[in-house]
Amino acid sequence: MAGKLLFLFLLIPFIGFSQKEPRQLLRGRAVADSVQVDNISVKNITSNIGAVTDTKGSFTIYARPTDTLVFSGISFRNAMLVLKKEHFTEARLIIRLDVNVTVLDEVIISPLTGNLEKDSRKAKTKDLVPFNSGSIVRDTTYQFKYSQNINTAMPQNESQLQGVDFVKLYKKIFKPKKKKKKVEGSHAQRNFAEVAQELYTHYFFTETLKIPHDEIGLFLTYCDNGEQTRQLLDPAKEFELTDYLIDKSYEYLKLKN
Fold first, then answer.
1. Is residue 204 within 8 Å of residue 172, measured between CB atoms?
2. What is the pTM assigned to this prediction?
3. How many domains in the chain?
4. How far is Cα 55 from Cα 69, in angstroms, rounded to an integer?
5. Quick check: is 173 in a domain?
6. What are 69-95's pLDDT values in tens digits?
């Protein structure tokens, strides 16, 4: 007896499955207000069967009662329908879809046409009030105050930077000129190295030209080029002589290295 009951319980599920209706071809059509309904996706999510509507919105898909159909498209809101028996008694299932409305940003309509010549004639302008700028300047009293720019990069106990002190720089390079006295001979008859050391300071040779202290005489001998350099000893050619010594210092230091 127990064996018969067990067999009966096992048989009941198979009877239930065998009573399910087979899926049949369902014809339908999707419609919407003023919007084409072609290429709408129709999917039976119960059986995982899909279809697509044609240009008129018509579609066919295999389904049965209790199956769920999902309709989706770019311009429409997704719709879901659980099928019932009466849906299969209709000649064609009609599904109405809602349009997915996109709210656009506010658009300001301008009265201008885009034609510059036409719009410029319509543009309203105001006449400028004439005035005499000369009278404004003449009748106005200005007070100017001068203030010294403070250089915060310098310590407070130091003098503020006012620019390059060319006088001080000149004194570092050239020795003070002595009052003219009558002496025998001239620069042209004296030794070039001797005259150059009288004209320029020790600072000029060691700091500007980077010549070691004990090599100043040797350097000037290297620079002595006879008559050419004696002509540079002329006071009128003071700056030419300076440029010459700077150029020769580069050569001299390069030879040492």
1. yes
2. 0.36
3. 2
4. 20
5. yes
6. 999 998 889 999 999 999 998 888 999
Look at residues 78, 96, 114 and tell me which one is the last residue of a structural domain. Answer: 96
Asked if residues 220 and 197 have their Cβ atoms less than 8 Å apart, the reply is yes
Using CA atoms, how far apart are residues 86 and 236, in angstroms rounded to an integer? 122
Range of the domain at 59: 20-96
Enumerate long-range contacts of 209-212, CB under 8 Å, 24 or more apart.
Answer: 209/245, 209/246, 209/249, 210/249, 210/253, 211/249, 211/252, 211/253
pLDDT at 23 over 90: yes
- Is the residue at 112 inside a domain? no
Distance CA 214, CA 224 (A): 18
Which residue has 């809602």 as its token pair? 98
> Tokens standing for 236?
């009128």
Percentage with pLDDT > 70 across the chain: 60
Which of 79, 96, 113 represents a domain boundary (last residue)?
Answer: 96
Q: Quick one: average pLDDT of 9-17?
A: 54
